[in-house]
Amino acid sequence: MGKSSEIKLLGTAASPFVNRVQFVLNLKSIEYEFIEENLFCKSELLLTSNPAYTKVPVLFHENKPPLAESLIIIEYLDEIYPNIHPILPSDPFERAYNRFWANYIDTKFFPLFMEMRRTHSKEGKEAIKKQIIEASQLLEEAFVKFSNGKAYFGGDNVRYLDVVLGCFLGWIKFSEKRNEFKAFDEVRTPKLLEWTKRIWTHEAFKDAIPNTETLVNFYMMLQKYKP
Amino acid sequence: MADEVKLYGFPGSPYVSRVTTALNLKGIKYEFVAEDLSNKSADLLKYNPVHKKVPVLVHNGKPISESLVIVEYIDDAWKGVPILPQDTYEKAQARFWAKFIDDKCTPAIFKAITNHGEEQAVAEAQEQLQFLENELNVKGKKFFGGDNINLVDIAATFIAYWLGAAEEALGIKVLSKDKFPKITEWCGNYINCQVVKDDLVPREAIVAFFRKRFGNA
């Protein structure tokens, strides 16, 4: 049974950044109201609640003003519900190390997939694939360090980086199929590949990662409105 | 056992300035290791293999990279003057504005600089700065942090000192006083803080840097 906490989440099912927040809400068993946003015809609510970015997710908690940016929302949720499935570690260095890799994933790793979508030449796509493979290698090394032989970045349990990277798995798979390559594979990134399988079947993730149809529809809209 | 704190950086970097300000706020003694970015040290490459950039803070042998991650680490690891608000919601908002400065503000300002004050680029930079102007207006205080500087003020270091130098170097205007009276006032207040002032390089050096790097032939 979830906690009633007066939380509303403005988002789009296809957005991995929204999914990220959903995973944390699921992990912490927090009930929330999901308000679906149309990113191709932005609502007044979105424009007024996040004027600086006009992006989802936006979190509304009790009667406080809205909060945006998924990583910031996650830390906020972790601070207001610290005793239920903690997401970030308490040690300052471990926290910094986690945040560093979250920054890498958001500014270096996932943007490559977004760039892939917008690249149409064969040479261009091959160059990006190469960069994705290099980045995946770094993430494999990071996973080995963080997991310390265990199942997740967080060790025995799903924690911050599992959520931060795990939210992209739907889109990564979509991009892999579409562009005929593998970001993670048995030879180069065996540990990460195993990790992805655990995330796909994890209780808190499997209902929040959007299905292929949702992704395809969203992809078509992106190609049309943001080529 | 005494803490060993080293900061790898170069003195003219606004990102390094963020970290020195945070260290100064907490009264932390540290060794500054000056890096020549055209000839990076083995240590830097060892401590930040992913980005190979400064600043890097090494605390008792453990490296931390990315300026805002470092500043939060400093606040986490040392007591004393708080850099982030104590209230959970206020803390989240401070993180938001710090991120906004990096995500939106600085890139737009940089574009205005590299495009030598081209009208559209300046307009876009000013659009982003307007959000910060509004924040200061709403707060009605000296700093984004209220009576004292906080994470947001520190994140906005580039605007406080480097932007003015770039404007002078290239003969452009982005942060006009009539459009941004609050930010203009904030700039003066911020660079006058001892914890900031102590480590700022002479303005002429920064003007010269922008002139050399982005000025017309």
In short:
By secondary structure, chain A is of the alpha+beta class. Helix content of chain A is 57%, strand content 7%.
| Content-based structural category of chain B | alpha+beta
Q: Strand count, sense and closure of the main sheet of chain A?
A: 4 strands, mixed
Greatest interface and its participating residue counts: A-B, 24 and 24 residues
The secondary-structure element order of chain B is: EHEHEEHHHHHHHH
Q: pLDDT below 50 for ≥5 consecutive residues: which ranges of chain A?
A: none
Would you write up a description of this structure?
The complex is a heterodimer of chains A (227) and B (217). By secondary structure, chain A is α+β, with helices and mostly antiparallel strands. Chain A contains ten helices and four strands. Chain A has a four-stranded mixed sheet with strand order 2-1-3-4, with helices on one face. Chain A is globular. The model of chain A has no long low-confidence stretch (mean pLDDT 95). Chain B is globular and about 55 Å long. By secondary structure, chain B is α+β, with helices and mostly antiparallel strands. Chain B has ten helices and four strands; from the N terminus they run βαβαββαααααααα. The relative contact order of chain B is 0.13. In chain B, helix 1 packs parallel to helix 3. In chain B, strands 2-1-3-4 form a four-stranded mixed sheet, with helices on one face. The interface between A and B is medium-sized, with 24 and 24 residues.
Q: Top keywords for this entry?
A:
heterodimer; A: about 230 residues; 4-stranded mixed beta sheet; 10 helices; about 55% helix; globular; B: about 220 residues
Topology:
The complex is a heterodimer of chains A (227) and B (217).
Chain A: E1 7-11, H1 16-27, E2 33-36, H2 44-49, E3 58-61, E4 67-68, H3 70-80, H4 92-118, H5 122-147, H6 160-166, H7 169-179, H8 190-201, H9 203-206, H10 212-225
Parallel strand pairs in A: 1-2
Antiparallel strand pairs in A: 1-3, 3-4
Chain B: E1 5-9, H1 14-25, E2 31-34, H2 42-47, E3 56-59, E4 62-65, H3 67-77, H4 88-114, H5 119-139, H6 151-155, H7 157-170, H8 181-191, H9 194-197, H10 203-214
Parallel strand pairs in B: 1-2
Antiparallel strand pairs in B: 1-3, 3-4
Helix pairs in contact in B: 1-3, 1-7, 4-5, 7-8, 7-10
